[in-house]
């Protein structure tokens, strides 16, 4: 039972980060190869706080989220300002992720490449509470004016700008929201695994986050969440597959782009699908 | 000492330029970032390694084999992963995701089949040195620089003087118009990918000879992307200059400051440049087409 709970908790923590990438890539249509860096910043900020200063867990999480948000502003402002070429952001965050790993490996406060051993503070209540709150808040946020702006920017940046949307501010807001979610995920992850190391937050992790969102479907929240759960729990069930997991993810990305760019649940959500299904049944039985 | 550092910097810069040129060529014609470029470089190095160790070929034949092999890998990559997307006018985001998938697939296939062992090339240069003005320069560094400059010059002449080169330049300007003028765009794009792959092959073999060959060696293309952005995304002279500047600055920093801050420094340089010169040193004022 403990084993099962452990997997479900890891999946839950991963789902929060996936939610962040879904906001940025799925809803705003920007490409990121470095969101693992944000997870890492959240993990290390909170980890350093609880390790060196015995900070209360709640404060450590908040600090992790805040520092992640600020660092996303530092990268976001120069790169997203170079309007209309979203490649700049992808490349800069790639460099940022590598630079962050090198810094973490060489700072004494992070204990370098050996990593930090932390206390196991992320109890199930914390993880599932944080997941529920972030899903709820993100859902409401995406249904707000801002969510509509994100989607307008994703569908056609030029038309969105014509309609009076400030592209730079909208993209920056989306980045900050997604980074803060990743930071939260990182803080929980650090205190769940009770050990963090710089190599845990590299490009491989970033591409896995991206693969999850793409496979789950662009413009969908529930799709990536479902796929994230499958992707996190599947390697546990099929351990012999572990070596072939990453090549399979890569192949999956290419195949999805060619045959089903909308992913599992592109532009749709589970509740609306269920309602639609129910409607169909009702029509069939009322005849 | 300074001259020695400078030559080492130029040789690394030359390799960055080779990678950046291929990447920039694809970015200018298809306006997306080909994140599979690093994987092609890595495969080029493995092909060269196989030719050098299994068949005991000399450097010339190893380079030729690596160039042709990596060129065809890049062409197949385009045919399989990008052509279908191109034909239905998918947004650049989809192409980038597909490229990321290719890179992940190829890199981890090498992990799963060949393994994560580090391989070294046989010593082609036997630590030979050339003496210039009282400082001793490694022959490897000098030849890496000379070969990369010669290759880029050849590419420049090809693009400026041949019919295919004119077609490539026309394609960069406007792909649809270019195809209306009777250019077979599928073939044109295959040629561009072959060229990019060929440059990746040269870069991969020199990287392998200078350092080692391993599955994630393609990650060094991060530097090439940075070089291309410094020079201006989509500009060939920009890619050349960006690569050389990055190589020299990095070597200077790691010699005189510390090799630890090298990567942090190049990243900060990128951010600083994006703030001051968002289009790079030689980039045009580009806006994505409506």
Notable characteristics:
heterodimer; A: 287 residues; two-stranded antiparallel ribbon; globular; B: mainly alpha; 11 helices
Describe what you observe in this structure.
The complex is a heterodimer of chains A (287) and B (290). Chain A is mainly α. Chain A has a single domain, classed as ABC transporter involved in vitamin B12 uptake, BtuC. Chain A is 76% helix and 1% strand. Chain A has twelve helices and two strands; from the N terminus they run ααααβααααβαααα. Chain A has helices spanning 2-27, 35-53, 57-81, 87-106, 124-143, 145-155, 157-162, 167-193, 203-216, 222-237, 242-259, 270-286; strands at 116-117, 195-196. A two-stranded antiparallel sheet of chain A has the order 1-2. In chain A, α1 runs antiparallel to α8 (167-193), α2 (35-53) runs antiparallel to α3 and α9 (203-216) packs across α11 (242-259). Chain A is globular, with a radius of gyration of 19 Å. The model of chain A has no long low-confidence stretch (mean pLDDT 86). Chain B has 290 residues and is mostly helical. Chain B has one domain (2-219). Chain B is built from eleven helices and two strands, in the order ααααββααααααα. Chain B has a two-stranded antiparallel ribbon. In chain B, β1 (129-132) and β2 (135-138) form a beta hairpin. Chain B is globular, with a radius of gyration of 19 Å. The model of chain B has no long low-confidence stretch (mean pLDDT 85). Classes of the chains: A mainly alpha (287), B mainly alpha (290).
